[in-house]
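Exercise 7. Given the components listed, write out the predicted structure of the assembled complex. Treat all entries as one system.
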Amino acid sequence: MSRGKTKPGKDAEKPGKDTKKSGKAEPKPGFRGFSRRGGGRASYVEMPSEWRGTTVQVCGMWPFGAGSGTPMIGVPLGRELTTGAALCCDPISWFQRANLIHNPSALVLGKPGLGKSTMIRRMLLGLVGQGVFPMVLGDLKPDYVDLIRAMGGQIIKLGRGLGALNVLDPGATAAAAAMLPEQARVKLVADAHGRRLNMVAALLTVLRGGPIADTERTVLNAALRVLDERHPGVPVLPDLIRVIDEGPERLRSVTLARGDDARYRAAVDPLHASLLGVLDGPMGEAFSRHTTTAIDLNNPGGVCIDISGIDDADAELQAAVLLACWSDGFGAVEAAHALADEGLAPRRHFFVVLDELWRVLRSGRGLVDRVDALTRLNRQRGAGQVMITHTMADLLSLADQADRMKARGFAERAGMVICGGLPQAEMPMVNEVVRMSSVEERMIVDWSTPPSWNPDMNRDSEPPGRGRFLVKVGGRPGIPFKVELTSVEMEVNDTNKRWTNSTTMPGAHAV
Amino acid sequence: MASEYHEPTYGNWRKPVSPGIGRLGLAGTLILMVGLIVVTMMAMVSTLAALISAVLLGLAMLPLVIQDQHGRTALQSATARLNWWWGRSQGWHLYRSGPLSVIPFGSCRLPGLLAASRLVEGRDSYGRPFALVVIPSTRHYTVVFECNADGAALVDQRQVDAWVSHWGHWLASLGYEPGLVGASVTIETAPDLGHRLREEIHSHTDPNAPALARAALEEIVWNYPVGSARVSTRIAVTYGALPHAGGKRRDQDAMVREIGMRIPGLISGLEMTGAGAARPMTAAQLARAVRLAYDPGAQSNLDAAENAEAPWEDAGPAAAQEAWDHYVHDSGHSITWGMTEAPRGEVLSNVMTGLVAPHHDIARKRVTFLYRPHDPASAARIVERDRKDTRFRLDGNTSAARNEIDVMKSDQSAIEEARGAGVTRFTVLVTATVRSAEELSVAAAAVDTLSAPARLRLRRMYGAQSSAFAAALPLGVVLPDHLQVPALVRESM
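Answer.
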């Protein structure tokens, strides 16, 4: 235990020629060191003047005013504003290796044009460097397409005349299920079934602008099961409609038709009509055909689903496509995990980017539930997710009280909240979810102020909050940092113009 | 409610003085008294003899009366000069370690006060390993905690107030620790060479990752660390082998056990003080920290080899040379200052923040707050004695408003003590380390500018640079216990 003790003979490689030569015993350090020339004895010791006080006063000379910095674990996002030290932070590493957060998810808030997506791109780039598979599920701008393409990832284009996503396609799940043993397969298939049901319900919710009735959900559930049994290969939406139209016995029994065709029709007709509406409306093209390109998980560059082809005016379609992307993506993650659990494939980590959360939530009542059901699935399982929205008001201004509470849950459950510049009006709402000190509030509000006029340059100067963010984990003091781009990123960033150009972007005011 | 809030201020600390006439302390007054009696007796025999002895007495008193701006008497200055000169003539200001030196086994032991020190390892009640620094000559055992302070930059003042008051509680609780002789807080700022970042990125980069991601990360490794600083916060708590005066001396094993049991309590007390999560430092961490302090140039190697063995015997410098006003050790040049005057008047709790924060002109800076708490019994005695002393002065010199304020202040201290606060002695040491002799003047200027907003009066520890340097390390060197003049004499000067 006392390895510090220096007893003769303990040190194996003692040269000891000096001491031997002098013929004396080992020199022992005295009270103040070795008392010989070159011994370094302290010749004079002085105590600086001591002062005296009661501890309730002396504590005022509080020594801990300077922070010690953050753990160096994760993707280097930028420099801390106070110390200039590199900040390493990403939901996956902070959850998995640093144990700093409770679940691997992050919520990003911030006014448009302040570099939210630039920061996420850095996080994504860093995680890809760590071997994490990135999934950008729905890129509206497009913000991420260039980066994913530059990394050799897969770009899936969806939209009118571009590509379709079959909501009834089990996707990667089917292939995975075939390889799995009985028990795991049953679970995976059940999950896939639930996801499909959820997705069809979500489409109807978007179309109607309100939640679907429970009886309709039951009919859909039964119809999907019938479809699974009957239909060889991958079904599409028209197949589902056909099943409902035909009305096999199992469907009839859940509608309590009791052999009466009129009663059956009365029960399923609204559903039938809505489904036909999906086919016929703007969504038909996107969802009623077979999936044009499936997500490929074997490409280390990741996948980006580019839905920028959908017009901003087509809000319903955007929301529906976003939801479908998320569903499809999470399904693929689930399948990969199921394989890894059985040891059939190496364990992989996924980083899922859910951009423009507000577009989905705004599209209709009841969609919060659908998003909730989607995003809860993989909470603890090797998939980190980051949700991006502009303001808390996006989440909290939903018409329905229950929806508002659930939307707030998104923010509350997020392991970390990363805030860019936000207007003053936002602060009370943000404060409900993460406690901000007045200094932090002021900082965030200052970041949201517009840039000063710059008459010399014919355009406004850089806004104060560009690239600046505050990481909040629980009630701990936030970590303010600034993203600094590398030259490699500059080249890739097609949206680079946003860093040097004006703050206002098209679409930013559509909020 | 918010408008009623007033940020608390702190102050009312005093320099302990022993009662006496004018600037003289108790000892000086006694010498003066005895001298005067002798002179009077001389006068009965011969006027000339009386005159001569009066002059001699005056000359003898002169070193005690003359003070510089820092309150040091001529006697102290002369002692420092003489000691320094003697040490230098003996060649003690030089230190050479390693195979060709006088040091046993060719190791690089620490110089000076820490030469005989050793490390003992133990495990606390929670099974965490910790190291104790043992200084055999004073029988002091020091445990060092590494803390992770959040910093006050983004925190509401009320939160800071809460932290500060808990810090006061912790300091007060030290008074109740049996056998505790001192505590210190060391805030060290050092440049971040980016080894941690490099290690983090390189060890987690996937070789199969796309070239773009790897290129970007590689660029970050080289760009980000430039100009950034690391702040480390360490708290050292020193226990003596005697649990109390006249108690039975405890041996090393007993001390390891005893301190091991106290560590969880000390740490939990620190939780709300703003020091953040504290954990005891292990032997390797401690040796590494000390090695870095003496040889800042080794930071690159030490950072790179995070888990390498670091023996305490080799933590010292290979060569060091003490000068009157600075200290050269391996790759560093250092100056250490000591506090001569605590912040004047009332201060806010952020008064020290500027001093402890990183400064770009000083490569490495250590600010060490040294505390020597009084045990509760003597605390009560001291504040009461202060009250009596100030009242005594008020009676003798009714006109001075300063004395009246002194009375009020000593009353306040007594009330605070009675309400449960502890009484502690404190001082501050500041060490600035730079890489070359030319940068010393810049660093000195920087410390001057830093000490002004902290409202501290600092004085270079002339002639005592090596020992002051050692005391500013987070190793719990309690300087007063290393002095040759007994405490009783010192305090009455």
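Discussion: The first helix of chain B runs from residue 26 to 45. DSSP finds 15 helices and 13 strands in chain B.
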